[in-house]
């Protein structure tokens, strides 16, 4: 990773261009940048009141950082000049490079830069209020803090919007990377990790440029205890097309990104508001130890709302045990029942000490965090005193117990800025919006990843070809993966093959796509007559027929797929198998390589997992054999000519697991 200290925390700045450059000068002056600022313009005498120099060659010294607010061709020339003079780095604001299809001009820019790092092109630059610098050609809302969060964004305008947040996030640094021709989001994160003032880092990503480098940075962040939170766009088909046209990056599939983030302990969110709330929660107290939450409210309706909205998260609201319930009950009237979410009623409303006793009894338990729903009147002619008392009571209880507590507004506008500041001065986090708060609590509880080794790199394939099922199964058998015994024969030898294989048998016509849909598969044929009838009803094929033994020990049908998914890695997909796979959509994803333990854990996260463990008195499946099959398959194909292999279904029995159907796509060496 390049050293970006000179670029991100410069002692001197050169600013090239007209209106965008002038705004950069103004922003640096407004922040109180103390070093020299050298505007460069061939005809103007000053920018934002600072005298201009006609060219980079006229600078009195070598600048640490250069902002280039000129057109794309002038950008290439200026980058070459800045690199030749030994500048510490640059921001290339101009557009018209790879994002519009001009790959060659972007390569020319990269060549012109030589060893000099730069952000962009097609990017807004950065704001670093810790060091009072903003190579940023627009307004921003970053505050001046001693410590705080940072965000790295691939989108300039989204970055601008995020800096304008009014939710109380201590956002001290914003970096945009644009097309990532030189420096990518991973380089920016690595540079931020060098700064001990950064408490958490958010990511607004359309694509990861180098998944291996991203993994290395994520591992380092975990080691340093700096949480990463990702909002990745381009997840829909339409979104991916937009992302590609926006920055010239390949968005990749959402499943691969989810697997990447999960493998390296990167929390994920879905909206900008969730990103801000999660970063705020992390900045003001770090990760949560788990997802066991207590919800406090003085309304049964609010308690029900919390329970409903949390279904989209992994948060749990475990009941209080008997001793804990008794301690809470001792602070209440007999009219209040104890449950979680907990409606504590309004009998004690306005009585800070009484609420503190109840809240303290609630917090004094094994849960990871306690949330208090508290929507206060925001207007200047309202009296919010009793709501302040409730927040103070929670703060008193949190201080007494040393436990984590947050105040949550159902509607973001119902905790106004004075109330939010009061809550935060009391050592609590104010989360704005119930849905956003639940998402933030969920994301902030993302555990630090267990070190299972780096995921395997991937190379995009060239031309491909489909391997017929029989050949695919032979290849699987060579790697110790269970497949049915069988033979490939012409139509005239099907009957004899059935006798040799042994009944019951399965008959498949080869060379046909979507066999089930065209009647090219018959399973469980018990004698020669049934086999003959099935053959007569099948479509004719010159590729031959596969006659194989029918697996009769079946507890569950499972989908297992391994495929190249550039630019991320080899994606392993597990799910509900059979002809209804696409209908149910019950799948989970990992990145290769995988361990048996990872496979078992992933399978347990499926909605269909009970089918593997003895649903409603049915026998349990041999999950260990299934996990071994998956590991063998992954080890056999990763790094080879395989592009995709799909086993659907793998029949898992009381003992053993057998791949009864196989689709194999490989690179075409010819």
Description:
- The protein has about 675 residues and is α/β, with parallel strands linked by helices.
- The protein has five domains: about 1-125, NAD(P)-binding Rossmann-like Domain (Rossmann fold); about 140-285, 3-Layer(aba) Sandwich (Rossmann fold), CATH 3.40.50; about 295-445, Succinyl-CoA synthetase domains (Rossmann fold); about 485-550, 2-Layer Sandwich (Dna Ligase, domain 1), CATH 3.30.1490.20; about 555-665, ATP-grasp fold, B domain (D-amino Acid Aminotransferase, Chain A, domain 1, 2-Layer Sandwich), CATH 3.30.470.
- Helices cover about 35% and strands about 20% of the residues.
- It has 22 helices and 30 strands.
- Strands 9-8-11-10-12-13-14 form a seven-stranded mixed sheet, sandwiched between helices. Strands 20, 25, 26, 27, 28, 29 and 30 form a seven-stranded antiparallel sheet that branches. A five-stranded parallel sheet has the order 2-1-5-6-7, sandwiched between helices.
- Strand 6 (about 90), helix 4 and strand 7 form a beta-alpha-beta unit.
- Helix 6 runs parallel beside helix 7, helix 10 crosses helix 16 and helix 21 (about 595-605) crosses helix 22.
- It is flat, with a radius of gyration of 30 Å.
- The two termini are about 40 Å apart.
């Amino acid at each position: 990773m390049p050293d970006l200290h000179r670029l991100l925390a410069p002692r001197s700045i050169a600013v090239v261009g007209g209106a965008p450059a002038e705004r950069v000068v103004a922003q640096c002056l407004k922040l109180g940048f103390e070093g020299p600022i050298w505007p460069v313009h061939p005809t103007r005498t000053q920018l934002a009141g600072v005298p201009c120099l006609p060219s980079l060659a006229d600078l009195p010294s070598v600048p640490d950082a250069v902002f280039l607010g000129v057109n794309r061709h002038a950008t290439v020339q200026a980058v070459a000049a800045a690199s030749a003079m030994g500048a510490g780095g640059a921001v290339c604001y101009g557009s018209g490079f790879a994002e519009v299809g001009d790959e060659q001009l972007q390569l020319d820019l990269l060549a012109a830069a030589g060893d000099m790092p730069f952000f962009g092109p097609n990017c807004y630059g950065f704001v670093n209020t810790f060091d009072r610098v903003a190579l940023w050609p627009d307004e921003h809302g970053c505050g001046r803090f001693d410590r705080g969060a940072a965000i790295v964004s691939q989108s300039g305008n989204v970055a601008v919007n995020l800096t304008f947040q009014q939710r109380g996030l201590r956002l001290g640094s914003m970096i945009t990377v644009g097309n990532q021709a030189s420096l990518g989001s991973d380089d920016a994160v690595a540079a931020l990790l060098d700064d001990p003032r950064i408490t958490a880092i958010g990511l607004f990503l359309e694509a990861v440029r180098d998944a291996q480098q991203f993994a290395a940075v994520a591992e380092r962040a975990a080691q340093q205890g700096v949480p990463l939170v990702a909002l990745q766009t381009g997840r829909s088909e339409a979104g991916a097309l937009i992302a590609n046209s926006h920055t010239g990056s390949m968005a990749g599939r959402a499943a691969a990104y989810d697997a990447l983030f999960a493998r390296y302990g990167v929390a994920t969110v879905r909206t900008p508001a969730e990103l801000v709330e999660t970063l705020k929660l992390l900045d003001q107290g770090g990760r949560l130890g788990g997802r066991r939450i207590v919800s406090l409210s003085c309304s049964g309706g609010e308690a029900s709302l919390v329970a409903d909205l949390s279904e989209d998260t992994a948060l749990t609201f475990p009941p209080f045990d008997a001793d804990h319930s008794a301690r809470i009950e001792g602070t209440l009237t007999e009219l209040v029942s104890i449950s979680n979410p907990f409606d504590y009623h309004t009998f004690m409303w306005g009585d800070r000490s009484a609420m503190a006793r109840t809240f303290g009894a609630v917090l004094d338990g094994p849960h990871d965090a306690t949330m208090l729903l508290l929507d206060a009147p925001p207007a200047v002619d309202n009296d919010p005193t009793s709501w302040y008392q409730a927040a103070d009571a929670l703060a008193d209880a949190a201080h007494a117990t040393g436990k984590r507590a947050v105040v949550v507004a159902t509607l973001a506008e119902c905790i106004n800025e004075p109330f939010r500041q009061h809550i935060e001065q009391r050592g609590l986090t104010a989360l704005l919006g119930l849905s956003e708060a639940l998402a933030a609590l969920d994301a902030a509880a993302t555990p630090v990843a267990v070190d299972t080794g780096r995921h395997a790199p991937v190379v995009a394939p060239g031309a491909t070809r489909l391997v017929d099922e029989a050949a695919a199964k032979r290849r699987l058998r060579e790697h110790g993966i269970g497949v049915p015994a069988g033979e490939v024969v012409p139509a005239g030898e099907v009957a004899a093959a059935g006798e040799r294989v042994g009944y019951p048998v399965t008959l498949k016509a080869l060379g046909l796509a979507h066999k089930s849909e065209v009647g090219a598969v018959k399973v469980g044929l018990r004698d020669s007559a049934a086999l003959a009838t099935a053959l007569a009803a099948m479509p004719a094929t010159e590729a031959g027929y596969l006659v194989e033994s029918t697996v009769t020990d079946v507890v569950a049908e499972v989908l297992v797929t391994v495929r190249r998914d550039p630019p991320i890695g080899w994606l392993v997909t597990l799910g509900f198998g059979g002809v209804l796979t696409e209908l149910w959509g019950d799948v989970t994803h990992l990145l290769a390589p995988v361990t048996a333990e990872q496979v078992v854990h992933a399978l347990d996260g499926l909605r269909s997992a009970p089918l593997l463990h003895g649903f409603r008195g049915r026998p349990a499946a041999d999950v260990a054999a299934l996990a071994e099959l998956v590991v063998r398959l992954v080890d056999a194909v990763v790094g080879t000519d395989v592009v995709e292999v799909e086993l659907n279904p793998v029949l898992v029995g009381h003992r053993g697991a057998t791949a009864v159907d196989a689709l194999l796509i490989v690179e075409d060496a010819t």
